């Protein structure tokens, strides 16, 4: 075999090896991506935020197949509650089965001797709720086909207060919020709520005893 022939044979072998390597890598990527996708049902997830392990449930409706982007709702429980408890109470689980969206039910940590959301009120408990919310969204979007323009928050009581805060400080992430049975409470050190863009707030309460604080740059605040 002359020199040019040996060179061509060696070049052909190297090309084939490279091609096989590329095929193997692509197959591994496809396998990893497929295994990471959420299927219908209830899943438990953990995140580390600010050095603390945080947990939440992911409810995926049976109509979800991952073929199209779906909305995402985060539903925050009240003081002393749990994500699992609110899942059986708020009604989002049942509605998701007909409308096709995914619901997250996170769990709060202890604050002031109670299980409640730490979002600056009560004070002295840290303020990582907004960061936790963003982290949950990012983690869920990595596992499911989420429409990131249709991410919403709702919550009951203490969780409603957090929903209001998300409207104030994470309007770039949330399309709208629907708090139930609590309003904005501003300690003296908090600034007035100034969302980065217009955001809709649907406030639900049977008897509002704590006045709604002033929102700036909001499309509407509707209270029932």
Specify the CATH architecture of the largest domain.
Answer: 3-Layer(aba) Sandwich
Text of the CATH class of the largest domain: Alpha Beta
Low-confidence spans: pLDDT under 50, at least 5 residues? 19-35, 209-224
Beta percentage is: 25-35%
Q: Based on DSSP secondary structure assignment, what is the total number of beta strands? A: 10
N-C termini distance: 88 Å
Q: Biggest sheet: strands side by side, in what order?
A: 1-2-4-3-7-8-9-10
Shape: globular
Please count the helical segments: 5
Largest sheet: 8 strands, mixed
CATH superfamily of the largest domain: Alpha/Beta hydrolase fold, catalytic domain
- What is the H-and-E element order? HEEEHHEEEHEHEEE
Compute the number of structural domains: 2
Q: Whole-number radius of gyration?
A: 23 Å
Helix content: 25-40%
- Provide the structure class: alpha/beta
* CATH topology call of the largest domain: Rossmann fold
Mean pLDDT, to the nearest integer, reads 79
């Amino acid at each position: 075999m002359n020199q040019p022939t040996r060179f061509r044979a060696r070049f052909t072998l190297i090309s084939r090896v490279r091609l096989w390597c590329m095929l193997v890598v692509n197959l591994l990527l496809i396998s990893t991506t497929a295994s990471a996708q959420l299927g219908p049902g209830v899943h438990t997830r953990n995140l580390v935020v600010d050095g603390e392990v945080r947990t939440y449930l992911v409810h995926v409706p049976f109509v979800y197949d991952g073929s199209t982007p779906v909305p995402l709702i985060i539903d925050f429980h009240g003081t002393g509650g749990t994500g699992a408890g609110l899942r059986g109470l708020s009604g989002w689980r049942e509605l998701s089965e007909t409308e096709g969206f995914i619901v997250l039910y996170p769990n709060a940590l202890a604050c002031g001797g109670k299980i409640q959301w730490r979002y600056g009120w009560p004070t002295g408990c840290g303020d990582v709720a907004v960061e936790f919310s963003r982290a949950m969204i990012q983690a869920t979007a990595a596992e499911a086909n989420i429409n990131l323009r249709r991410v919403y928050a709702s919550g009951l009581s203490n969780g409603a207060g957090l929903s209001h805060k998300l409207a104030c400080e994470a309007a770039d992430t949330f399309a709208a919020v629907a708090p139930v049975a609590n309003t904005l409470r501003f300690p003296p050190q908090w600034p007035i709520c100034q969302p980065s863009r217009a955001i809709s707030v649907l406030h639900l309460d049977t008897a509002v005893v704590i006045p709604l604080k002033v929102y700036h740059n909001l499309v509407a605040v509707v209270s029932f």
